[in-house]
């Protein structure tokens, strides 16, 4: 279906330990593949093994990946 970047700030709260200044942290992580459209505004993504967050996200947390070639891959921050 396509690739999207994931904005996880709403899910971070106090569960994820972020180092450094918050304004300098990554805003989006990915690119992740869309598996299916669950509802009109929610999509299921393919996340790597070991991620401890649900794999269905609202469109407000996603950003479309432009282009067909993704060079870099940034993993989600680890949980404490």
Structural class: mainly beta
Tally of separate helices: 1
User: Please, what is the average pLDDT?
Assistant: 76
The profile of the biggest β sheet is:
5 strands, antiparallel
Distance N to C terminus: 33 Å
Query: What is the CA-based Rg, rounded?
Result: 13 Å
The arrangement of helices and strands along the chain is EHEEEE
Binned, the helix content reads: under 10%
Name the shape in a single word.
globular
Total count of domains? 1
Strand content: 25-35%
The unreliable regions are none
Task: Compute the number of strand runs.
Answer: 5
Report on this structure.
Helix content is 5%, strand content 29%. The chain contains one helix and five strands, in the order E-H-E-E-E-E. With 80 residues, it is mainly beta. The termini are far apart. The longest helix has 4 residues, at 9-12. A hairpin with a 4-residue loop joins strand 2 (29-37) and strand 3 (42-45). It has one domain (3-64). Strands 4-3-2-1-5 form a five-stranded antiparallel sheet, with no helix packed on it.
Explain the layout of strands and helices.
Elements: E1 3-6, H1 9-12, E2 29-37, E3 42-45, E4 56-58, E5 62-64
Antiparallel strand pairs: 1-2, 1-5, 2-3, 3-4
Task: Sum up the structure in keywords.
80 residues, mainly beta, five-stranded antiparallel beta sheet, 5 strands, 5% helix, globular
In short:
5% of the residues lie in helices and 29% in strands.
